């Protein structure tokens, strides 16, 4: 199955087709709300702009609106069938729907998403982020659906040709996912040295450092010590980048450094470019640990009433976290209302269903 992290990566990509409209930098930085606004403005002038439609589709996928995203991606392809950007947009929508479906039908959609990516890199061999996403897909899919570590590593080599640091990141992630942390780590170090402050590299490295391969190699205590030291080492170069701050806070949380996890996110909040991401992380820390519960709930309430940046798990995750905190505060009716709100956004949200069962047993 796809990791949830793959969906945002599928969305972080768009090649430049016109000098006057280049959404790729914003998509790469996760500024999906800006891309949505910019593409809507452009489409108000020219409703047949395939690139703007593709950009809008990718932003919608990041905002968890997969059905509409798929419709828009198909519309872009009907206007320009060989547009790699539109193929990646359709891949993002299909992959997002596959994750959300959580049944056998999701395997078919995941396979279709891979097909779109393969066509995208064929049409545009210099499409760096398509190579990144394709490589992760090859590693994560089961072999019966075309998954292959060998093919994944070939994607990493293609990516190194275009963006060496991101190629090393992909190489490291593939090796880590295949259980080879000792071989993966040098590639992460090389990527971090070549592109200090690159949020995607910091996020990818910390995610893999917190995963199973690193735990097996380092031991549970060794992993926690390294997570904490590396997170704090990398923080100064990325403290204004919300997704990297989230990853640092999450690494500290996994390392059982609860107060540091909260402090890092709280102190960074005023200076990040996407505050909703960090507010969600503060809510997560509160929900999982009980630390600063009421303040965490306040941050989630704020985020619920603001535009929520894409690539975050969306409003379903936000209200699930609200419900967890309210349950901890023994506000059972409010917790149930929050859970039902989460299910209104994602009727199959597993964590929310478990939360409802817990609420029922607690009353």
Q: How would you summarize the topology of this molecule?
A:
Layout: H1 6-11, H2 24-28, H3 32-45, H4 50-62, H5 66-79, H6 84-101, H7 105-123, H8 128-140, H9 149-162, H10 164-177, H11 181-194, H12 199-209, H13 212-218, H14 220-238, H15 242-254, H16 258-268, H17 275-289, H18 293-304, H19 314-328, H20 332-345, H21 350-362
Helix pairs in contact: 3-4, 4-5, 4-6, 5-6, 6-7, 7-8, 8-9, 8-10, 9-10, 10-11, 10-12, 11-12, 12-14, 12-15, 13-14, 14-15, 15-16, 15-17, 16-17, 17-18, 17-19, 18-19, 19-20, 19-21, 20-21
Note down, in words, how this protein is organized:
The chain has a domain at 1-125: Tetratricopeptide repeat domain (Serine Threonine Protein Phosphatase 5, Tetratricopeptide repeat, Alpha Horseshoe), CATH 1.25.40. It starts with 5 loop residues before the first helix and ends with a helix. The model is unreliable at 1-19 (pLDDT under 50). With 363 residues, the protein is mainly alpha-helical. The longest helix is centred in the N-terminal third of the chain and has 19 residues, at 105-123. It contains 21 helices and no strands.
Share of helical residues:
over 70%
What is the count of helical runs? 21
Structural class estimated from helices and strands: mainly alpha
Regions with pLDDT < 50 over 5+ consecutive residues?
1-19
Distance between the termini: 35 Å
* Top CATH class of the domain at 1-125: Mainly Alpha
Going by CATH, what is the homologous superfamily of the domain at 1-125? Answer: Tetratricopeptide repeat domain
Tell me about the largest β-sheet: none
Strand percentage lies at under 5%
Mean pLDDT: 91
CA radius of gyration is: 20 Å
| DSSP, total strands | 0
SSE order, one letter for each helix or strand:
HHHHHHHHHHHHHHHHHHHHH
The CATH topology assignment of the domain at 1-125 is Serine Threonine Protein Phosphatase 5, Tetratricopeptide repeat
CATH architecture of the domain at 1-125: Alpha Horseshoe
Shape: globular
